[in-house]
Write a structure and sequence with these properties.
Two copies of one chain form a homodimer. The first copy, chain A, contains 13 helices and seven strands. Chain A is an alpha/beta fold. The first copy, chain A, has a seven-stranded parallel sheet, sandwiched between helices. In chain A, helix 1 packs across helix 2, helix 1 packs parallel to helix 3 and helix 12 packs antiparallel against helix 13. At the A-B interface, helix 3, helix 6, helix 7, helix 10 and helix 11 of A face helix 3, helix 6, helix 7, helix 10 and helix 11 of B.
């Protein structure tokens, strides 16, 4: 299946939109790159893409380092494929503040299904942009949705605030845990325990798995009752053990969202997250950019440094000068 | 030493400022709580506090979960104390989006030096606030600085974008690593390797330590030459092994910052970070708040949900309506 490669020039956003809507992989890839680069053409493209969404299911997969998250995502993709569903995967990588790019490109990741036409992997950097935190995740989900994937899986490494934010785009959040990961991890676990709709206790063959399961049960008991009790699925991702149960749990959660009417709330949360990103783009980033150009940013920093002014006063002046 | 407890009422910010400047611990504690709560009184207080900074040294300590970061921070505090320096510690915890509070309060952390008058521990939540990401860290550093601590240590769990952002407030960033933490951790390491001024390879008695040290050396070789070659200090924090070398490395980095003139750049970076937080407060958060009040946020979310509009158009309209 040969595709016309998307080229630069007039009407690039129309061209890309058309390509994406008819399911051309090169057009999708090119569009994602444009969005990542913050290119001007991306803005016009996205304004159309957001009106052409098809309602893919978005699953977020998060968890501490070392729990086998990538293997779980691989397994999930396999299970979705065996159900005949096409899958787009977005892996959000920690960004190098130096290079500005994703540390782990798609190349160095061990991925299966790479020759499957119905699966598409993409790494995204959580850029160290002024005020803009992985803003692109929502846009890339929209692109993959308009392209027509049945399932979109968003995977994040780590458990900082950025991961919590990214999970706002997911209808179902799978938190992957492993037995006995040390004390520090307890904190991480606690931080992400409350965003999980499904818990996946991976490496369930390790000693201490049962104890960790009970710990999770106990923490879940502390959660407010909400009508959905997150199941804990024991997996051994490297053997495939428990993966179909995991997909069943994800599907049950979806059915619950639909039957309870909560799906709408999830969509609202995702729209709010993307709106937030665009508000930041139009305000904070715009102010910083103009203030850099006319030297008022430098003056503000000098005033802060000398103790002549305070951040609130400086920020107010910059907003007044550059936004109103 | 009895202190008058700071009370609510008129002039609370003046009262707190006065208390902080004369070194009253209850006033500092109360002020930090006000800032965390986003109380109105905090704004006025902070505008004065930022003009009364004393230039404490700020050390950031970050690293993946399970590497023994808390033990390292404990050890650092002990070393600083043995040099006669007072220390304020800010532990930035992952936040529960449900409770809005820090998961690990000061109480559940195992801390030494808790009865030492010259050491103060404080946990801060990285709140899941709309658009506001651990905004308070910079403010709390300013409070501790005005109070008069010689050293301020900021400790973060995890290695997401939020941690990278928080590290902008530190003059010296210590990245704590441990041998053989699995593949996922390589990504984290890569993400934080580039922000480290000093590397601390903890649990140096574990097998594989030497190999991990060589791996770090190799990755450091890939960094652009900048005049400072980050040292790798091998520690066994639970025995105290290597801790004084760690403090020496931190001090060497400071001397380098001063002699190279880079200290000013670091201060600039920190001022930019705090300015960024305040810009977000005055724009994104303000828009979202007013838009919630007059119903325009709800209308925007409805338009996004129905595909009648796109995020950029919605965000532009909200900014126009509520900021200009």
């Amino acid at each position: 299946m040969r595709e016309t490669s998307p080229t630069r020039g007039a009407g690039i956003s129309d061209q890309l939109l058309e390509g994406i809507l008819r399911g051309s992989r090169p057009h999708l890839a090119r569009a994602i790159s444009l969005v990542e680069d913050g290119a001007g053409e991306a803005v016009r493209l996205l304004s159309h893409v957001y009106k052409r969404r098809r309602m893919a299911s978005v699953v977020g997969v998060t968890g501490s380092p070392g729990v086998g998250k990538s293997t779980i995502v691989n397994g999930l993709v396999g299970e979705f494929r065996s159900l005949g569903r096409s899958v787009g995967v977005i892996a959000v990588d920690p960004t190098s503040p130096f290079s500005g790019g994703a540390i782990l490109g798609d190349r160095v990741r061990l991925r299966t299904h790479t020759t499957d036409d119905m699966v598409y992997w993409r790494s995204l950097a959580t850029r160290g942009h002024l005020g803009g935190l992985s803003r692109h995740t929502g846009d890339v989900i929209a692109l993959m949705d308009a392209y027509g994937f049945d399932e979109i899986v968003v995977e994040t490494v780590g458990a900082g605030q950025s991961e919590v934010d990214i999970m706002k785009y997911a209808e179902t959040v799978v938190v992957v845990l492993a037995p006995n990961l040390g004390d520090d991890v307890q904190a991480i676990k606690a931080g992400i325990l409350e965003i999980g709709d499904v818990f996946c206790l991976n490496k369930a063959d390790l000693p201490g798995a049962e104890r960790t399961r009970r710990d999770i049960e106990m923490m879940l008991n502390l959660r407010e009752e909400s009508g959905w009790r997150p199941p804990i699925v024991m997996t051994q991702a490297h053997t495939g053990e428990g993966l179909s149960e995991l997909v069943n749990a994800v599907n049950s959660h979806r059915e619950y969202l639909v039957s309870s009417g909560l799906l709408e709330q999830k969509a609202r949360q995702s729209h709010l997250a993307i709106l937030n990103e665009y508000l930041s783009l139009l305000t904070v980033e715009k102010v910083l950019e103009s203030a850099q150009v006319d030297g008022s940013l430098e003056r503000a920093l000098k005033d802060l440094s000398s103790g002549n002014s305070d951040p609130l006063t400086c920020a107010s002046e910059l907003v007044k000068r550059h936004l109103t």
